[in-house]
Design goal:
It holds the Pfam family ABC_tran. By secondary structure, the chain is of the alpha/beta class. Helices cover 35% and strands 28% of the residues. The chain contains eleven helices and 15 strands.
């Protein structure tokens, strides 16, 4: 349904997006992951026809949208990172404004406003000014605005950043319902791996402007099928010990966080004797040890060398 072909964008000496090819099938939910500066937002801007690529193409139903951007804009809803609303207007007034931009009027406009407000759970607060809403409520109106013209494709660029858990859960459930019950095609970027795990059928991972891996969640996890992750918790932080453990021969990746240490090792590697020996030498108390199969977060760390939020 929607595809990019070797999409590239250069800003003077900076190659922000380098030959990115993506494909979204009708009714599919696809995740686009990458650390900060990976090129995700630039790629989305080109797909949305807001930014002209240096080379490559974006096609909708096999037709180039670079030559016919209006075709894409009629069927695309975009939920940007930043709130794109007028704070001095109410939710109802914002949606009426955006609906008119899409050519809606009269009874159809009012019906659509009622539908999207009900969809995001704000029908009873539609007359309040947006500036009085919480950040989470504003994000929900942002989604409602993107849905006013009944789009076929919804692009969501980190839509849950900085919002309360209740609004986050409501947004995620709404997106999942749109995709699974109404067949909405979704391209979703996030700094929260669990959101992508919950919502997306397939995932593309970007780093330094390129797609470095793609597939279903199970296919990506299979990259680390011969590895496992040992998670160790201590009574407090021991930076010197953590560094020593990360340097044990065979350890492929280490992730340190306060009192926890995650070590990625080959399956079958005997680590516990060395672990407890070093802990005793440093006077450290181990409070918990468990082994887990690789997660999507582990795959991301292995491929990019960074966490998703770096």
């Amino acid at each position: 349904m929607l595809e990019t072909d070797k999409l590239t964008k250069r800003f003077k000496d900076t190659l922000a997006v380098d030959g990115v090819s993506l494909e979204l099938k009708k009714g599919e939910s696809v995740g686009l992951l990458g650390p900060n500066g990976a090129g995700k937002s630039t790629a989305i801007a080109m797909i949305s026809t807001l930014l002209k690529p240096s080379s490559g193409d974006v096609r909708l139903h096999g037709k180039s949208v670079l030559k016919h951007p209006g075709d894409m804009r009629r069927v695309l809803g975009v939920v940007p990172q930043k709130i794109a609303l007028y704070e001095e207007l109410s939710a109802y007034e914002n949606l009426k404004f955006f609906g008119r931009l899409y050519g809606l009027s009269g009874k159809k406009l009012e019906q659509r406003i009622d539908y999207v407000l009900d969809l995001v759970g704000l029908a009873d607060r539609k007359k309040e000014l947006v500036k009085h809403y919480s950040g989470g409520m504003q994000r929900r109106v942002n989604l409602a605005a993107a849905m006013m013209h009944e789009p076929e494709v919804l692009i969501m660029d980190e839509p849950t950043v900085g919002i309360d858990p209740q609004s986050r859960n409501h947004l995620l459930e709404t997106i999942r319902r749109l995709n699974r019950e109404e067949g909405m095609t979704v391209l979703y970027t996030s700094h929260y791996m669990e959101e992508v795990e919950k919502l997306c059928d397939r995932v593309y991972i970007m780093d330094h402007g390129k797609v470095i891996a793609e597939g279903t969640k199970e296919e990506l996890k299979a990259i680390l099928s011969n590895q496992e992750t040992v998670c160790i918790e201590f009574d407090q932080s021991y930076p010197d010990l953590f560094q020593k453990l990360s340097e044990i021969e065979g350890v492929q990746h280490a992730d340190m966080d306060e009192r926890r240490l995650k070590l990625m090792i080959p399956k079958g590697m005997r680590l516990l004797a060395s672990l407890f020996h070093e802990a005793e030498r440093h006077g450290a108390q181990v409070t918990n040890v468990h082994v887990q199969t690789p997660t999507l977060e582990d795959v991301f760390l292995r491929l990019t060398g960074r966490t998703l939020r770096d």
